[in-house]
Structures are given as C-alpha cells and as structure tokens.
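Hi support team,

I submitted a single chain yesterday and got back a structure, but I'm not sure I'm reading the token output correctly. Could someone confirm the output below corresponds to the sequence I sent? I've pasted both exactly as they appear in my results page.

Thanks,
R.
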Amino acid sequence: MSKGKVLMAMSGGIDSTMSAILLQEQGYELVGVTYRAWDSMKESCLAKEKGCCTIDAIMEAKRMAESLGFEHHIIDFRENFRELVIQNFIDEYMNGRTPNPCVLCNATIKWGKLIEVADQFGCDFIATGHYAQIKEENGHRYLCAAADTHKDQTYFLWKIREEYLARTIFPLGQYTKLEVRQMAKDRGYEKLSTKTESQEICFVPNDDYREFLKNNVEDFEQKCVPGHFVDMQGRKIGMHQGFQNYTIGQRKGLRVAFGEPRYVAGINAKKNIVKLGERDDLLTSTLHAMDCQFTDLEAVQKNPQVYARIRYRSPATLATVETDGKKMKLTFEEPVWGVTPGQSVVLYQDGKVIGGGVVKK
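Hi R., thanks for writing in. Yes, this is the structure output for that exact sequence:
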C-alpha cells in the first residue's frame, strides 16, 4: 500500500536520485519533475554549461526516473525564474547590495511553483535532495539542521513557508554525504556515487557575476562607471571601476596599491562610492534586517537569545534579537565580520530555524 504520492524534484545528480530511490523503498508513489529555469549559453560556446538546470542534467534526470519506473515531467519555469529570481539578482547588484538568489529560488520556485505542480498531479508531498530535516514542536513545523553539518542547507531554505514544510520530505536529512555516496554505490550506481556537484549559481556562467551583469543589464557600460574609493573617514584615496564590481569583504581585484591590505567596507550606489578599510573595520556587533519571517514570533520575543548565521559558510554566532516580525535588530555577543547588505541572516535555536531576514544597510 502506498504511503502517499510524492512529487520528486530531480536534478540529475546523486542527491535527488538517491532521495527518489529511498522514497520508493519506503513505499511512496513518485512523480518525477525537473524544471527548466534558464536558457544556457552552451550553444553559443560562451561558457561551459554546468549545474542542475542544463539540458544534459534534465535529460539525465528523465532517464533516471524512467529507469526507476515512475513518470517524469519537464516543466518550463524560465519566465517565472527570470521575473522572480534573475531580475532580483540584477536589481540588487545595481543597487549596491549582494543578493542570495538560491534563497529566493527556493522560496518562490522550488517551494512555490512546485507546490502548484504537485497539486496538478495530485501529489500529497514534494521532496528534494536538500540536506535538511523537519520537526514538529509546539504545534509548529520547523526546518532543522541536517545530520551532516558540512552539507546542511537550511541557510538557503529559511524562507520556505511553514504550510509548505507540512508537505515536504527531505529523505537525506538524517544522512551524511559520504553515507549517501555509499548507498548509491551499494545499489549499483557506481558512476553516480562519484559524481561531482557544482557550487556555483546556476545561471551565472563560470561564477562571474560581473560578466553576467554586463550581458544582461541594458546600457551597463553607461551605468557601471568609475568613481571614488574613500577611506573610513570619507577621504578620497583612489578610483574604482564602478561600484557594481565590488562586494563587502572583497580584497583582491581593487587595482589600487595601498601598501597594506584593504577591504571593501561599504558601497554607496547613489554616490558611486566604495569605502575601503582595514580588516578590523569590517567587524560589527549589530545588524538590521528586513523582510523577516518567523515560525513562532511570540516564542522568539519571549526567548530572544539565538544563534545567527550571516552567510552560508560562517559559524552561527550567539546574538540577541529584537523584532516586530517584519524587521529585526541583532546584537552579537562577539563581533562578526563582513556583514553584507542583501545577504540572508538565519536564526537558530536548538538546531531549529526559527526565522530569518535580509540584511539591510
């Protein structure tokens, strides 16, 4: 007897494939789906095509679903993806901020549009190959850290609505990546078990966002123009090549020698000014965030001590949060380095994601 019907989001990689296999073994009925999110540049030979949205990856996912004996559908989300994710990516950089498109894609495409597709196919759940877990506590469903702390992807998933978590399965949340590779090998998928994965943004060829902006922003050369580097006191100390070419914490590629390391400490898009400082100048004890989301706002306000992560690879740092649910202020117990407007800050308590927001200036 089937445990339910699952819309399995497949990328052609090891994680989504093993997720499908595990769900089948557990007795679920699967419908495979892979979405086309963007037009690759492989045909024009401008970049080496990589990632989960390429034609090769899509066809690999289709072949795998067919070999496992369940139906597979290719969904065209390119228009939605450009409107919701790529345009935001462009707008943020053109306003001096550093966006996190994976967070937005997960919230609007992978758990937005896919929920709609699940309903169309009569699926009770959706499943992906993300490394995360879901737990129920005090009447709420919480996104929780994966067993593999090195692969945990909750930072990118914080904007998923609680009602969507109720219909989500993460088959790999309790396993490490090494265990997943071994499971694939044990089941006879030798080639799959050694398959590498891309860490790049899927729609940015060669991970070069500057080239992407140049090719996708109308009149970019007229909008990206030289301006002044200033020091922490606002004194002019050199010329930069357009604020769009810089991100907070950047040290290399400044094209100006100062005799000692300087880091991008601030960007003023309106004035086309890039502020440079020494490493310690990028330490801060507070940050403000907007576009916030909390699973249980009242509980957070009663217990405001959290662990906050300001970027994917940074450690979670003890902090106190003040919030009205839409915006928040975080005060860190120890200063954090390189707080970047546009990036997500994700809050944890006891391994649970309790909320998050987008860092503002």
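A quick pointer for reading it: DSSP finds ten helices and 17 strands in the chain. Let us know if anything else looks off.

Best,
Support desk
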